[in-house]
Amino acid sequence: MAPMASALHTLTTRAACAVTVAVLTIPLPAFAAQHEHGAPAAASNAALAKVAPLKGAVGPLPPLPRVPFAPARPMPVVQEVFEFAARHPEVLSYVPCYCGCEQLGHQGNHDCFVKSRTASGGVTEWEAHGIGCAICLDVGREAMLLFNSGASVTASRAAIEKRYGGNFPSSTPTPRPPTTPTAKPAAPAKKAAPSR
Question: Which of 60, 93, 106, 184 lies at a 20 to 30 A Cα distance from 194?
Answer without folding.
Answer: 184
